[in-house]
Amino acid sequence: MDISQDLRELSRVAFSYPAIDNHAHPFLREECKYAHPFEGLISEATGEKATRDATHTMACYRATAQLARLYGLGPGADWEAVKQHRKEIPYEKLCRMCMEPTRIQCILIDDGLGLPDRVYPYRWHDQFTGSPTKRIVRIEALAEDILKHSIEAQVSGEDGLSPGKLLHRFLTGLEAALIAAATDAEVAGFKSIACYRTGLDVSILTSLVEDTAVVHEVEQLLTRMSLIFLSNHPLRLAYKNLNDYVVNLTMRIAGQCGKPVQFHTGLGDNDITVTKSSPSHLQPLIKAYPNTKIVLLHSSYPFTKEAGYLTAVYDNVYLDFGEIFPFLSPDGQRQVVREVLELAPTNKIMWSTDGHFWPESYYLGTLQARQALYEVLESSVKRWELTPLQAVGIVKRALFDNANTLYNLGLEPQWTG
């Protein structure tokens, strides 16, 4: 039987079906477009030596070739030529050049990177999509803001730095802010970066005020953090009991309001303790909040198999296969997609770019994901492990339908196919 026509249809859908980018970050403002090394496009490495090494990876070689074609450069263009040429393109034109081919219909943006003066607000990105951008609220950033306001209110009042009253003010303000976000139509969900702060081995904490020893410890922490903040130093929430409580409170409120909670898992910069970045550490939390939908971000790489297992056996767990584009080699990307499909139900997987700062991150994140998904499914169809119709269904669910349902977006795919 000739399946060439069926594969052409699979290719057409894989490379042109509208997509919902379920996890991304804002573009840099035009006046700040050189504020970060462009090598961050192809690596999570930090520091001059590490980013220089990143230009010798398979990921960089492929990105160089793809961007050279996008910019209309010759096949011999190297990384430095690509960097130089993009500087000559007007910023608005560059953004549209990168976004138009992606066919991204809707972006869910985590705008909690802490760089409001360097990046555009989330709704600015609507000009590149057919449907309005939605927010993903980063809970650790929200908690830090609430703590700053609590400290400022405390020192300007009559209570000074009373630890007990500061703790009460913080917890009350945090709960109110989380409820406000959970009931905001502009907010599609929440995100935790506990993986970066204290690890994914989150303890189940329903209260911070029942255990006297915990209360005393947290009050001391808040006092120290207050002094740090009042000394004009950055405030960073990275204390396990406090961070774990923030996650637990979010899980409870999000579950009550029907908003998913995303977790950074796996792949990240060297601020992560790799051994604590596996989603397997989240199993107690998953079981403790069965009514709260959890999204494991970034393919949980290199722990994709563990993520697939959790997605398969727990009703409330979903798996995002993002960020590996463009950070992994082409073979690596295909292998991760295969591992996602090994066990995870295809109605519970979804795609994202993890696009950030540079419009090229959205372009490469989309182009490479579509290609990897097509190549893996094409291979399965050719081996008669999937019917062409099943493969097309997987593509549509992974790129659009699953995220549309999970985040309750109510969108119709803008597609003429």
UniProtKB/TrEMBL annotation:
UniProt-listed SUPFAM superfamilies: Metallo-dependent hydrolases
Entries under InterPro entries matching the protein: Amidohydro-rel, Metal_Hydrolase
One Pfam family of this chain: Amidohydro_2
GO molecular function annotation: hydrolase activity
Domain Amidohydrolase-related: 251-374
The protein, known as: Amidohydrolase-related domain-containing protein
